[in-house]
Design the sequence.
C-alpha cells in the first residue's frame, strides 16, 4: 500500500487457489512491457535504483518469470513509471484492494466450487440466476476480461503539461535548497537539462522525475504520484498545478478530484465543499490564509471556490461523487460571521442535505454518544480497484496524508462510529431547521 514500502501486492489467485494463473498474468505483462519498450532487466534495475528504489537485475528477472510474486506497491509504481504503463494495466484484474474485496472473491470461488458436478440443466439454471443478480446490481452480463495488449507509450507532453511540470519541479528544487549545478552533479551531468525542464521547454522521462523527486526529499507516495501523473501525461495540467499552490495541497486537491467517495469530519467549520462564498471568506479569515498556503484571504478563497466548482454536480448520475460529512453542532452555533451570512449558510446546508449524493450528519452538543480524539480529517475512496483509500489529517498549517494501512483503518473506524452515533437524515433536518429558526428570530424574521 502507498506509504508502506513493505506492503505487498495481493493477487486473487493467492486467495482462491489459482495462484499460478494470477502470477502468470503479472509476469507475462511485465515481460511484454519490457520486450515492447526495449528494456533489459539490468536497465530497469539500474533506472529504479537511481530513482531511489534499489532492486537488482536478478529480482527483475524473477518477477518477469513469476518466481517472485510479492513486489511492493512502491516497486510496482516505479516499474509502471519506467515502462510507461499504468499500475492497473501491469497488475491486471488480479489486484485486490482490501479484505472486503478478497472476501467477495473467496465467496465467488466458493460458488464455483459448489457448482462442481451439477448437470447441464442445473448449470443452466444457475447461470440464469447469476445473470439476474448481475443485472440487479448494475453489472454487465459477463465480466469483461482486461486486455493484455500493452498500451502505446505516452505521447509527448503538451505545452501546458510541460510548463506545469517544470514549475512544480522548480519549486521543489528551491524548497530543497539545491542549485541547478548540485542537481546535475547528483544525477549525473548530461542526464537531464534541469533549466530546460524547469522552463517547460522539454519533458523529462518519468524515471528522471522519479530521481528528481527522491533527490528533493519527496518521499510520500501520494505526492510523488501527483507529480508523476503529470510527467506520464496521465492527466492535463489543472488549476491546482499553479506554483502558488503548495505541493501537499495540490496533491490533496488532485486526490479529491479523482475520488468517488469523500468522507469528512469537521468539528470547527462547515466543510469547505459545502460552504457559501461569504462563509468561506469568514472561515479563512478566522483560520488564516496560510492554512491554504496563501498570503491573502482572496487567494485562499479562490482555491476553495475552485475546489467546489471542480467537484460540483447534481448527484444524479451513477458516477456522481458521494460526499459524506459529519459536523459538530457547535459549527452551527459558532458565530464567525453575522447572522445574515450564517443563516444563508444553514440554508445552503439544507439544500446540500437534500441532494442524493450528500449525506450530512451532526454530532449533538448535548450528550454526544461519541466524539473522536482528533481534529478534522478526510477519507478518500477511488474507483480504481488497485488503489487503497487515503486519509488526510488537517493540521494547523498543512495537511498530513495518511497511507499506512492500520492508520487509515483507524480513521475509517472513527468515521463509522461517528456515522452510526450521530443524527439520522431526518434528525439532521431537525437540527438544521432549529438553528435556522434561531437565526431567523435573532434577525426579527
Sequence:
Amino acid at each position: 500500500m502507498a506509504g508502506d514500502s513493505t506492503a505487498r501486492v495481493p493477487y486473487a489467485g493467492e486467495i482462491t487457489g489459482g495462484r499460478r494463473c494470477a502470477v502468470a498474468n503479472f509476469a507475462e505483462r511485465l515481460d511484454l512491457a519490457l520486450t515492447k519498450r526495449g528494456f533489459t532487466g539490468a536497465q530497469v534495475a539500474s533506472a529504479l535504483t537511481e530513482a531511489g528504489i534499489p532492486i537488482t537485475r536478478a529480482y527483475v528477472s524473477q518477477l518477469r518469470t513469476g518466481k517472485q510474486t510479492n513486489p511492493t506497491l512502491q516497486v510496482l509504481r516505479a516499474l509502471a513509471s519506467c515502462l510507461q504503463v499504468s499500475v492497473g494495466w501491469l497488475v491486471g484484474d488480479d489486484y485486490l484492494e482490501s479484505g472486503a474485496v478478497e472476501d467477495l472473491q473467496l465467496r465467488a470461488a466458493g460458488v464455483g466450487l459448489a457448482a462442481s458436478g451439477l448437470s447441464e440443466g442445473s448449470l443452466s439454471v444457475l447461470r440464469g440466476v447469476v445473470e439476474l443478480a448481475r443485472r440487479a446490481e448494475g453489472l454487465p452480463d459477463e465480466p469483461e476480461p482486461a486486455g493484455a495488449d500493452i498500451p502505446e507509450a505516452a505521447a509527448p507532453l503538451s505545452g501546458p503539461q510541460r510548463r506545469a511540470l517544470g514549475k512544480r519541479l522548480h519549486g521543489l528544487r528551491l524548497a530543497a535548497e539545491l542549485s541547478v549545478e548540485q542537481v546535475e552533479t547528483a544525477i549525473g551531468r548530461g542526464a537531464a537539462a534541469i533549466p530546460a525542464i524547469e522552463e517547460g521547454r522539454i519533458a523529462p522521462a518519468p524515471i528522471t522525475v522519479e530521481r528528481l523527486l527522491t533527490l528533493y526529499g519527496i518521499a510520500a507516495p501520494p505526492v510523488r504520484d501527483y507529480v508523476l501523473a503529470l510527467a506520464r501525461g496521465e492527466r492535463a495540467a489543472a488549476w491546482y498545478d499553479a506554483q502558488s499552490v503548495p505541493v501537499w495541497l495540490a496533491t490533496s486537491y488532485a486526490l479529491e478530484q479523482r475520488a468517488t467517495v469523500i468522507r469528512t469530519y469537521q468539528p470547527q467549520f462547515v466543510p469547505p465543499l459545502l460552504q457559501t462564498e461569504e462563509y468561506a471568506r469568514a472561515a479563512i479569515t478566522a483560520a488564516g490564509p496560510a492554512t491554504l498556503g496563501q498570503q491573502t484571504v482572496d487567494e485562499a478563497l479562490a482555491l476553495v471556490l475552485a475546489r467546489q466548482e471542480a467537484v460540483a454536480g447534481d448527484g444524479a448520475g451513477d458516477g456522481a461523487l458521494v460526499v459524506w460529512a459529519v459536523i459538530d453542532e457547535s459549527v452551527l452555533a459558532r458565530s464567525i460571521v453575522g447572522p445574515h451570512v450564517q443563516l444563508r449558510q444553514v440554508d445552503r446546508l439544507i439544500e446540500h442535505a437534500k441532494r442524493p449524493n450528500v449525506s450530512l450528519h451532526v454530532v449533538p452538543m448535548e450528550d454526544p454518544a461519541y466524539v473522536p480524539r482528533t481534529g478534522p480529517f478526510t477519507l478518500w475512496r477511488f474507483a480504481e480497484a488497485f488503489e487503497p483509500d487515503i486519509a488526510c489529517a488537517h493540521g494547523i498549517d498543512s495537511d498530513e496524508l495518511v497511507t499506512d494501512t492500520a492508520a487509515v483503518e483507524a480513521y475509517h473506524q472513527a468515521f463509522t462510529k461517528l456515522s452510526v452515533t450521530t443524527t439520522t437524515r431526518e434528525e439532521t433536518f431537525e437540527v438544521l431547521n432549529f438553528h435556522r429558526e434561531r437565526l431567523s428570530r435573532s434577525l426579527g424574521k
Summary: Confidence is low (pLDDT under 50) at residues 1-23, 94-107. Residues 354 and 429 are 9 Å apart (CA to CA). The radius of gyration is 25 Å. The longest strand covers residues 259-266.
